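Q: How do we represent a protein-ligand complex in a form that can be generated token by token?
A: Start from the inputs.
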Amino acid sequence: MTPHLLIRGGTPLTGEVWIDGMKNAALPILFALLLVREEVTLEGLPPVTDIETTLQILCKMGARLERISPTAIRIHTKNTDPDAVPLKWTTELRASSYLLGASLGRFGRAATGIPGGCDFGTRPLDQHFRLLETLGATVEQEHGILRATAPGGLHGKNVRLDFPSVGATVNGILAATLANGMTVIENAAREPHIVDLADFLNACGAEIVGAGTSSIRIRGVSKLHGTRYRIVPDMIEAGTYLCAVSATGGKMRLCGVCPEHLGAILPPLRKMGATITVSENHLTLERSGSLYGTVLETAPYPGFPTDMQPQFAPLLCMARGGGRIYERVWKKRFQYTKELEKMGANILLSNDFADFRGGDRLVGTQIHATDLRGGAAMLIAGLCAEGTTELCDVRHLERGYPNFVAKLTALGADISYVQN
Ligand code: UD1
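Then emit the structure tokens for the protein with uridine-diphosphate-N-acetylglucosamine bound:
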């Protein structure tokens, strides 16, 4: 029996929400644990299924795990075995590609199933492979398994990425941390999760400078030591709640956030009619007047994040004058718009943009979460819709949004799980 969500829309959201640690920072840090042969304490792990799957993969490989709380662990990876990777589980996660860099760096060899995760059409790994091969690895794909070896060890080199890929940058940092000599990654991704990975590894004794800029320099070290580390707050979870309250109307205080990571998310919300005040680690958003249209264009950080565009779509559907979203990172990331159309939205898709007519009345019906952020868009649409929305395939949301039913209920949403 698969649980669905029943959402009775139309209630303005009001109250306070605490933001959890960032999934997309926690995942690379969990795989980076393979490089550290001493005990590490991690805090701020978001309680979501992608994190649970990754912990299970590490445990199957031999990691010793102690749970301190739902968001904190102590973990020791000294006795891990690269040949014990549970390949079936790796196919559930995009981030399992990080096993390549981490396992090569620790053991000189790596294996993983073809990484899964959200389906945005083709999700190539060529930049990852080229980077690892430049450092001295051989990567092969056979019978649905990716294998990498570096019998002669990994050696620091200069590499320039064709696109500032988050995943390739993570794999480069993981592979270079214990490599011989200096690696320089040019045109690197600049996302806060890259900075968090580098901060974690540096806290363990790595020598990484430039994370957060386009040029990252990694001087290989011979070993790392244990540490205690707290994962950075999730800017996408924060942005999703900001969109939800902008869409339903209401007033929310968002706590435990890094406002500097929201630099591309707050301006369009203000333009659409929200009033936002920012303090050191919290912010408040209020929207009581009309919703206005805008144009969004996704880009690598510090640009407007591709992981936020679906959540803006319900707002653009309802806004006066509508708007347009250009998708420059994942051109096929508009599969969720079909579900919005079932609710009465008027959307016209072109090759890499979507036009929203605006002024639409969203009406509750049965819809599906097509992927993680598309699922968040459906949740927001359901919260604004007239009548009841039945949201299926909720597992996509559970991969990345901690306790979202409880958090939304605390804001006054009428939302509950049902089995059928
Ligand atoms: C990560 C995030 C994902 C987010 C994306 C962009 C995780 C687990 N996933 O995905 O949520 O949507 O960043 O912020 O952290 N590309 C290539 N070749 C490659 C790699 C990427 O051409 O080898 C292209 C992709 O087709 C895409 C773009 O680069 O157009 C961005 O991909 P990338 O930044 O690598 O995304 P992921 O790391 O897969």
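The chain has two domains: 3-20+233-419, 23-230. Residues 23-230 form a domain with the UDP-n-acetylglucosamine1-carboxyvinyl-transferase; Chain fold (CATH 3.65.10.10).
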